[in-house]
Here is the input.
Amino acid sequence: MPFTLYPAIDLKAGQVVRLKRGDMAQATVYGDPATQARAFDEAGFEWLHVVDLDGAFAGRPANAEAVAAILAATTRPVQLGGGIRDMATVEAWLSRGIARVILGSAAVKDPDFARAACRAFPGKVAVGIDARDGMVATEGWAEVSSVSALDLALGFEDAGAAAIIHTDIERDGMLGGVNVEATADLARRLSTPVIASGGVAGVADIVALKATGSVAGTIIGRALYDGRLTPDEALAASR
Here is the structure.
């Protein structure tokens, strides 16, 4: 199974930021989205992972200009999440050049719509499952549901989702190491590819995830921005 790295560009008020455990009050600003996208492109990453943080909380797109700037700055495919709650928004982003949209809160609160979107746009809709202690969180992680990550993922097995993006909220932005065991266990129980997210701190995390043989890739954020992991090191470890 090929193992793909997804460098993260999180957007807040038009700027690139990194959060700790999804807390908007703990945002570190890193600058211009287009500049960052171009840097990741030139470094050799095959995909970019973009999140409209304001959109995730508002329930509708909130950083359209920044996303447009990213698309103009890179030749790489971009997957985008945050505030995508209806078919019109899915269609709008795909028509603007987004390669894959990510449905998070909508997958929990309106699974019929999410499954319909997966079927309508095969290979272009991923399901983001953000979990705290195994339970799915929604609304930019502000609310924890009564749905387990596994149950939600299983509900999309026959829908044609491009991937499941599994985030361990407690580890996100904390550089404490990725939850390899939980992510690999989820991946082994699904036919849909699973992408790990949250906590990647260095080369060892990438090596451990790839070694599972079941996880399809990982999203990398703070470790790249803080210089704990260089693009060359990350890409070499993924091969």
Q: What stands out?
A: The first helix runs from residue 33 to 43. The two ends are 11 Å apart (CA to CA). The chain has a mean pLDDT of 91. Residues 4-238 form a domain with the TIM Barrel fold (CATH 3.20.20.70).
